């Protein structure tokens, strides 16, 4: 079995990736457990993996773990991942997403692994109006401190491939949704607030469009790229499910049998990207990957999952309420 080291494996998508990779790979995880990390997400696989609580911005510790693990493959999910938080304070984004990536790339060079999978995002392209799509050759034009830090991560990985011949693949997934997402992101916020009959804050008029990709489809795409992808290449990972935020909210309210009067429009996020849309011909043709989760079914199952796991959200509530007070101004 190949040895795989996964950064950010206690996060939302990283943990789904670990759950899917166990059995096919010998998996170890590095995660420093920020507010967004939670080992509970790994409870079903904890006896199958090795877990290191460590910060990827710490070169000594990271080098020690990589030298101990000697992975064949490193999959880099660890990041500060929330745009709104990057608007409040960009520092942790610069530290983890840029410096942390550089530390990992240098360690990877030193140990000589066979593949470094660098997880970027569709947000590095900037935004679109109603028409058009991003291909892998579209110029990067990020707009938030988060997406700028991810663009730097993306470009650093490609620079190490070109300059140092490090075997890097760059992946740019669209907006993920599903179980275990930290409840600062739109979907769990809607579900939790609707459940408690609280006002649901929606930026602007809710017209911003995202391409909604189920977390299980995203993790499977990454595993398939690891098997069939070419080093030095970039692959978009999208679902084709483009939805306006307001339509997502209304669908969830319908599923939960709650009134639309709970929706409260709040001042827009500064610099809010209007629309993202990925052209995914490359991953479909070269890797033979396609998404399988129907969006309506995925929304229904996700809503049911949060309603059955309210305790998990409630455990994070004190910190969340303080955060919500800062970002959503009525
Ligand atoms: N969520 C999305 O819709 C989406 C879309 C495209 C790309 N991505 C990218 O996918 C990756 C995972 O996203 P997510 O939504 O699962 O994020 P997340 O915030 O849920 O998880 C991030 C994980 O990284 C860990 N982490 C953060 N800083 C660290 C550090 N310095 N050292 C070690 N661990 C650290 C956290 O503890 C957490 O477990 C990120 O790189 C993100 O940019 C996410």
Give a short synopsis of this structure.
The chain is an alpha/beta fold and 330 residues long. It has helices at 12-21, 59-69, 83-88, 91-111, 145-164, 186-195, 215-228, 245-256, 281-287, 295-308, 310-314, 317-327; strands at residues 3-7, 26-30, 50-52, 73-76, 115-119, 168-173, 175-177, 200-203, 209-214, 234-237, 242-244, 263-266.
Keyword list:
330 residues, alpha/beta, Rossmann fold, seven-stranded parallel β-sheet, three-stranded mixed β-sheet, 16% strand, globular, binds nicotinamide-adenine-dinucleotide
Task: Give an overview of the whole structure.
The chain is an alpha/beta fold and 330 residues long. The chain has helices spanning 12-21, 59-69, 83-88, 91-111, 145-164, 186-195, 215-228, 245-256, 281-287, 295-308, 310-314, 317-327, and strands at residues 3-7, 26-30, 50-52, 73-76, 115-119, 168-173, 175-177, 200-203, 209-214, 234-237, 242-244, 263-266. Helix 5 (145-164) links the parallel strand 5 (115-119) and strand 6. The mean pLDDT is 97. It binds nicotinamide-adenine-dinucleotide (NAD). Nicotinamide-adenine-dinucleotide (NAD) binds next to helix 1, helix 4 and strand 7.
């Amino acid at each position: 079995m190949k040895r795989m080291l996964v950064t950010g494996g206690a996060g939302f998508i990283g943990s789904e990736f670990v759950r899917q990779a166990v059995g096919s790979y010998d998996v170890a995880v590095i995660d420093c457990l920020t507010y967004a990390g939670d080992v509970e997400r790994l409870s079903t696989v904890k006896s199958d993996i090795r877990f290191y609580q460590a910060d990827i911005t710490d070169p000594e510790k990271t080098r020690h773990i990589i030298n101990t693990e000697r992975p064949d493959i490193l999959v880099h999910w660890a990041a500060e991942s929330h745009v709104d938080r990057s608007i409040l304070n960009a520092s942790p984004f610069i530290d983890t997403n840029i410096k942390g990536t550089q530390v990992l790339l240098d360690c990877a060079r030193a140990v000589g692994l066979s593949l470094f999978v660098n997880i970027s995002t569709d947000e590095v392209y900037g935004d679109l109006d109603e028409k058009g799509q991003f291909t892998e050759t579209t110029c990067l034009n990020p707009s938030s401190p988060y997406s700028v830090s991810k663009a730097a991560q993306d470009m650093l990985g490609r620079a190490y491939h070109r300059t140092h011949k490090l075997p890097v693949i760059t992946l740019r997934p669209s907006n993920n949704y599903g179980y275990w997402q930290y409840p600062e992101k739109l979907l769990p916020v809607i579900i939790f607030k609707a459940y408690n009959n609280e006002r649901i804050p929606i930026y602007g008029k809710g017209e911003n469009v995202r391409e909604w990709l189920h977390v299980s489809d995203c993790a499977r795409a990454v595993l398939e790229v690891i098997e069939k992808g070419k080093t030095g290449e970039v692959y978009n990972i999208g679902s084709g499910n483009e939805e306006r935020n307001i339509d997502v909210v209304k669908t969830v309210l319908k599923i939960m049998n709650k009134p639309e009067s709970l929706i409260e429009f709040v001042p827009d996020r500064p610099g809010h990207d209007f629309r993202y849309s990925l052209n995914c011909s490359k991953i479909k043709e070269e890797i033979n990957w396609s998404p399988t989760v129907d969006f309506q079914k995925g929304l229904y199952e996700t809503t049911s999952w949060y309603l059955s796991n309210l305790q998990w959200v409630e455990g994070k509530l004190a910190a969340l309420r303080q955060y919500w007070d800062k970002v959503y101004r009525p």
